[in-house]
């Protein structure tokens, strides 16, 4: 899952080396927290959050056998 | 790092140093000579260093195909991709097992993926492409569904003599409906609302 997020985001940003994805497990969900280089923030969010929404849609679709919900937190 | 300006005693040296820093080979880059430099007197006085700009040229379309493979691989979906290029329009046809997972409800996931692919493809290339990502003929099936939906809704609009609003759709799906009803004499269509809630209205 982490690899998926990293792959997608790496294709969008100018500083792929600054991508950090951390995973925290909570009671009902698994939260992935994504941070990117300050300059790239706009590139992962997009106009009206359009890119962020697309990333989330793809990532949520990838949820496979895990029972918990996943949540992607950007910045 | 995809672009680098380097300098050296000669153009050749400058290019070599750039290639080393970019960690690549000559056949994968585009080289622009900014300044050819001057030898100067005895190589000491009045010499000017050569400056070149080296850009990693890559095949955007192939790179993007790899990107799709990686993304789907990370989703545990094994796909084969067939790529067709028609002018500046690129179509990636995905097929494989479990492809339904990739399409999602009403093509939601496929559309999101298509948008991301579009961004990845056009990120740092000089050439601009439009993209279609298709999965097991989904786009074709969707086109048929939308066309029949369009005529059904047009009938409804006429019967009720009232405007009929459809649910929000992405631009290329609205286009299918607009063109399906273009020849229809009794109704006209327009889009209303702002993205991502923009939807078609059929007016008798």
TrEMBL record, chain A:
Keywords: Cell shape, Cell wall biogenesis/degradation, Chaperone, Cytoplasm, RNA-binding. Gene3D superfamilies: 3.30.300.20. SUPFAM superfamilies: Prokaryotic type KH domain (KH-domain type II). The keyword Chaperone applies. GO terms for biological process: cell wall organization; peptidoglycan biosynthetic process; regulation of cell shape. It is found in: Cytoplasm. One of its GO terms (molecular function) is RNA binding. The keyword RNA-binding applies. One of its GO terms (cellular component) is cytoplasm. Forms a complex with KhpB. PANTHER family: RNA-BINDING PROTEIN KHPA (PTHR34654:SF1), UPF0109 PROTEIN SCO5592 (PTHR34654). HAMAP family: KhpA (MF_00088). A probable RNA chaperone. Forms a complex with KhpB which binds to cellular RNA and controls its expression. Plays a role in peptidoglycan (PG) homeostasis and cell length regulation. Belongs to the KhpA RNA-binding protein family. This is RNA-binding protein KhpA. The lineage of its organism: Bacteria, Bacillati, Bacillota, Bacilli, Bacillales.
UniProtKB/TrEMBL annotation, chain B:
GO terms for molecular function: RNA binding. Residues 140-204 form the R3H domain. The keyword Electron transport does not apply. InterPro entries: Jag_KH, Jag_N_dom_sf, KH_dom-like_a/b, KhpB, KhpB_N, R3H_dom, R3H_dom_sf, R3H_KhpB. It is found in: Cytoplasm. GO terms for cellular component: cytoplasm. The keyword Cytoplasm applies. Residues 5-55 are annotated as: Jag_N domain. Belongs to the KhpB RNA-binding protein family. A probable RNA chaperone. Forms a complex with KhpA which binds to cellular RNA and controls its expression. Plays a role in peptidoglycan (PG) homeostasis and cell length regulation. Has an N-terminal Jag-N domain and 2 RNA-binding domains (KH and R3H). Forms a complex with KhpA. NCBIfam families: Jag_EloR (NF041568). This is RNA-binding protein KhpB. It comes from Virgibacillus indicus.
């Amino acid at each position: 899952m982490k690899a998926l997020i990293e792959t997608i985001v790496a294709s969008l940003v100018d500083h792929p080396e600054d991508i950090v994805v951390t995973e925290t497990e909570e009671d009902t969900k698994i939260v992935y927290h994504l941070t990117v280089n300050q300059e790239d923030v706009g590139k992962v969010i997009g106009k009206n959050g359009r890119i962020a929404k697309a990333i989330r849609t793809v990532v949520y679709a990838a949820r496979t056998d895990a029972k918990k919900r996943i949540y992607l937190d950007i910045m | 790092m995809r672009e680098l300006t380097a300098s050296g005693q000669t153009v050749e040296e400058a290019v070599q140093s750039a290639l080393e820093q970019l960690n690549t080979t000559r056949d994968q880059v585009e080289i622009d000579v900014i300044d050819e430099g001057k030898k100067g007197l005895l190589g000491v006085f009045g010499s000017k260093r050569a400056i070149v700009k080296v850009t990693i040229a890559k095949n955007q379309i192939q790179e993007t195909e790899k990107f799709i493979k990686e993304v789907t691989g990370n989703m545990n979906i094994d796909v084969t991709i067939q790529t067709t290029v028609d002018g500046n329009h690129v179509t990636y046809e995905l097929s494989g097992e479990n492809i339904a997972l990739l399409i999602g409800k009403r093509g939601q996931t496929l559309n999101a993926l298509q948008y991301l692919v579009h961004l990845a493809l056009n990120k740092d290339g000089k050439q601009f492409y439009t993209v279609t990502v298709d999965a097991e003929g989904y786009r074709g099936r969707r086109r048929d569904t939308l066309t029949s939906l369009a005529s059904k809704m047009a009938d409804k609009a006429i019967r009720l003599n009232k405007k009929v609003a459809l649910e929000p759709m992405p631009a290329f799906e609205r286009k299918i409906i607009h063109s399906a009803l273009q020849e229809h004499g009794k109704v006209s269509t327009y889009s209303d609302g702002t993205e991502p809630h923009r939807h078609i209205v059929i007016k008798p």
